[in-house]
Amino acid sequence: MKLVFATHNPNKIKEVQILLPPEIKILSLADIECHEDIPETSNSIEGNAKQKVTFIKETYGYDSFADDTGLVVDALDGAPGVYSARYAGAAKDSHANMDKLLTEMEGKNDRTAQFKTVIALELNNNLIVFTGVCKGTITYTKKGNGGFGYDPVFCPEGYTQTFAELRLDEKNKISHRGKAIRQFIDFLNH
């Protein structure tokens, strides 16, 4: 089975392909000649994921899946949330996003947060949604060189290391994306 993964992020493609069974081949947006930015104008994480797969189906005719992820920080009333990728501006600069987050968190005792991933699957004209959540805390400084996005400032519940300090296989076992992907795989295998 071939499915388009509606993302331009090679890190996400690598992370997800490792989790999928070998009979499911991921096509990237580049593989289908989609080089434009897919609209993400919804005010919810779920809405953005759905919007991406609908766009791929209507524009390119492919079945696809897309994820949208947000970091929801309790002390910031849920921010950055749906705006996580562009928190510090349109450039989608991870370091600028983390710097802004750490600045916003200065003096806050409540460091609780959660990552939420929603995967939307457009398959045979059906739209199905899978959700994964990973609870944790925001650190005071960046730690680790692995992962991407906010991984150096997010410490998952029950761990002393950030996502950026964990091996990829360790992160995938507990991460929001890993949880959503496992639901997605279970669905495809039935």
Give an overview in words.
The protein is of the alpha/beta class and 190 residues long. It has one domain (2-188): Maf protein. Helix content is 30%, strand content 25%. It has five helices and seven strands. The chain has helices at 10-19, 45-60, 94-104, 168-174, 176-188; strands spanning 2-5, 25-27, 64-73, 80-81, 112-123, 126-138, 154-156. Helix 4 packs across helix 5.
Shape: globular
Approximately what portion of the residues adopt beta-strand conformation? 15-25%
Give me the secondary-structure category. Answer: alpha/beta
CATH fold type: Maf protein
**What is the level-2 CATH architecture name?**
Alpha-Beta Complex
- Give me the Rg, rounded: 16 Å
Low-confidence stretches: none
Describe the sheet with the most strands. Answer: 7 strands, mixed
Q: In percent, how helical is the residue content?
A: 25-40%
Mean pLDDT: 92
**Order of SSEs:** EHEHEEHEEEHH
Number of helices: 5
CATH class: Alpha Beta
Secondary structure: number of strands: 7
Through-space gap between termini: 14 Å
